[in-house]
Specification:
Number of helices: 13
Number of strands: 14
Number of domains: 3
CATH superfamily of the largest domain: P-loop containing nucleotide triphosphate hydrolases
CATH architecture of the largest domain: 3-Layer(aba) Sandwich
Shape: globular
Largest sheet: 6 strands, mixed
Order of helices and strands: EHEEHEHEEHEHEHEHEHHEHEEHEHH
Oligomer: single chain
Strand content: 15-25%
Distance between the termini: 34 Å
CATH class of the largest domain: Alpha Beta
CATH topology of the largest domain: Rossmann fold
Strand order of the largest sheet: 2-3-1-4-5-6
Length: 418
């Protein structure tokens, strides 16, 4: 997969924060060498978070997020500020851009505390170094002989030297150094498991069951299916893709048992009937819950479905937005399955895209999609919000497996799951 085609969820998310006219958009343009963001002397030009997937050397594939000014005013301005703060939930590295001619303001320090509280690696960019000639020769923008006095400057009082970089987006002073500073903040490669590659061996046969119905996208596979196929290829195994309607014939034609069958959650019940018990079976949703590090919590959440009572409210949340079909899984099929399984009259509310409720107390359960379009930090943020509110949370595939009585079978392949 080329860097240009790297899914957004797999890219490093770099959030740019600061007051209006601090030069956030200019810094983005200087970093990327492109006019990605609109630059204007008029305050409040950026009114909503703007995401742009791109390649940023030496980092590779990233998503740059330009945010509204933190000092916006009025009721609408307050909503814009709230949107800017919400971007922190998906930010892997934060760049706080301050106007070097003014220094760190209350708004700058307020978001800096939020950045620190979320343990997000960051750099403070003191922009407009070209207008502050006393800070013009070193990487920090301070004369080498005056580095010890940096902390005493009103604009950087209380900040450590290694967290501050003086730049000029106008003449590109220290822009290269800023790229290197960002690269140094990239989290080390974690030990997160692969999607499926660690469960199979070279030359294994892996059958992927993908229904093609009215809700299926025209002419393409959805992202989790594409990524799973890619991971199987990288493991040196063989992926065999079939519809649920041809699964039995496919298994009979193979001549040997597949090492694993992976199904779309909607076909779980039928696939479980068609796949012999001695062949491991799981779903895309369950694989991606493990991939994003939250399988145990979503399994525990699914088991609470049996505890639902009349009048309980369930939040069904999706990370992406799409045109809903008449048999949409989130708004139609899942509610029907829950009501049928529990025999209870429960209520449902729905969210999609970047919207996720700040207050979760009224919900008895959250059923989330697989989160394939959300990066790991945002998915973990949503899980933590649910945990902090003591609300169980599961995902589509795990909930369906539980309600169809095949959850234990579908997680048996993960030997390390407690």
């Amino acid at each position: 997969m080329s860097l240009n085609n790297t899914p957004s969820a797999e890219r490093l998310h770099i959030g740019i924060f600061g007051r209006r006219n601090a030069g956030k958009s200019s810094v983005i343009n200087a970093l990327t060498g492109q006019n990605l963001a609109i630059v204007s002397d008029i305050k409040g030009t950026t009114t909503d978070p703007v995401l742009k997937a791109m390649e940023l050397l030496p980092l590779g594939p990233v998503v740059m997020i330009d945010t509204p000014g933190l000092d916006d005013t009025g009721d609408l301005g307050a909503l814009r500020i709230q949107k800017a703060y919400q971007v922190l939930n998906k930010t892997d590295i934060a760049i706080l851009v301050a106007d070097g001619t003014i220094g760190m303001t209350a708004e700058d320090r307020s978001i800096l505390e939020r950045i620190k509280a979320k343990s997000i690696p960051y750099v403070i960019v003191m922009n407009k170094a070209d207008l502050t000639p006393s800070r013009e020769t070193s990487v920090t923008g301070i004369l080498e002989s005056d580095v010890s006095a940096a902390a005493a400057l009103p604009s950087t009082a209380g900040l450590t030297e290694d967290s501050v970089l003086w730049v000029s987006a106008a003449d590109h002073t220290n822009i290269h150094e800023l790229k290197e500073r960002i690269a140094s903040l990239v989290p080390a490669e974690d030990s997160r498991l692969r999607i499926v590659g660690d469960l199979i061996r070279p030359s294994d046969l892996v059958v992927l069951v993908i229904p093609i119905d009215k809700a299926a996208p025209k002419g393409r596979l959805i992202l989790p299916q594409q990524q799973t196929i890619r991971d199987i290829l990288e493991a040196g195994a063989v992926s065999i893709v079939t519809r649920d309607t041809e699964l039995r014939q496919t298994l009979d034609a193979l001549g040997q048992k597949p090492a694993l069958v992976i199904t779309d959650s909607q076909a779980f019940e039928q696939v479980a009937r068609d796949v012999p018990d001695d062949i491991p079976l799981t779903s895309f949703s369950i694989l991606f819950a493990r991939y994003k590090g939250n399988l145990k919590s979503v399994v525990d959440g699914a088991r609470t479905i049996s505890l639902l009572e009349n009048g309980d409210t369930i939040l069904i949340s999706e990370g992406c937005t799409h045109h809903r079909q008449c048999e949409d899984i989130g708004t139609v099929k899942l509610p029907n399955w829950v009501r049928k399984y529990t025999g209870k009259e429960v209520n449902f509310e729905f969210t999609s895209g970047t919207e996720f409720p700040a207050e979760l107390g009224k919900y008895r359960l959250i059923i989330h999609c697989g989160g394939c379009t959300l990066n790991e930090r945002e998915m973990k943020y949503r899980l933590k919000c649910a945990a902090d509110a003591d609300i169980p949370m599961t995902n589509y595939g795990t909930a369906i497996a539980f309600m169809k009585g095949i959850l234990e079978r579908s997680i048996a392949v993960f030997q390390d799951l407690d």
